[in-house]
Amino acid sequence: MLCTLLLCLGASACSTNEPLRIESPAAPTTPAAQSSIPSTSEWQAWEQPFSPAQVREVLLATDLSAVGTQENSEADIREYLTECDKCLIALPGYETAGEKFQIYSVGTAGDSYSFASFAIRDDRGKPQVALAVGGSDVYLSAGKEGSLVAQEAVYKPDDPMCCPSGWSVRMFRYQDGRFVQGDSFSSPFDPAQEQGAEQ
User: Fold this and answer.
1) Around Cβ 48, how many Cβ atoms within 10 Å?
2) Which of 11, 99, 105, 113, CA to CA, is 20 to 30 A from 86?
3) pLDDT of residue 166
4) Is the pLDDT at 164 greater than 50, yes or no?
């Protein structure tokens, strides 16, 4: 009898005037998507052995006329390198034949629109430009079978900046201590996104 009384008192103490709500079991939550932003350690690895300041110095001492375009002249590129610290962007490196190359692009700080991209080698402890490409939103990245790929956006006159009509792709091979251009082709799809989807 005493147990029954205590049970009733305990139940009434926990009750409220609100109606009882019955919920279905919680649906399993999916894990949050992994961020594609590189970690600090990845950035530090990309910036070895040469820091952006060292690469900027060697680029400013280099003839950049070959990477200048009608839209972004050599003078424009030099101005970005001189005036804007965030306009020199470190990208994932490239390795071939036991040699590592750092990849850097020069572009706008706000949207990272690149108009020149460089492969930097270690020449007896000093940075040296091994390959330089210029263009419209152009980037160098590692490709298939040891190639280095220059990918450039192709805009028609009425294309908005977000959405080019296609991409121009140039493949480079490292032979006898230098990069040699191989195949080139056009693509209506972003080759970098296609490569990411295959992985």
Assistant:
1) 12
2) 99
3) 86
4) yes
Task: Tell me the backbone φ, ψ of residue 166, rounded to 5 degrees.
Answer: -175, -170
Return the pLDDT at 160.
83
pLDDT at res. 31: 34
User: How many other β-carbons are positioned within 10 Å of the β-carbon of residue 129?
Assistant: 19
Amino acid identity of residue 15, one-letter, is: S
The pTM assigned to this predicted structure is 0.71
Over residues 62-87, the mean pLDDT reads 92
Q: Percent of the chain scored above 90 by pLDDT?
A: 49
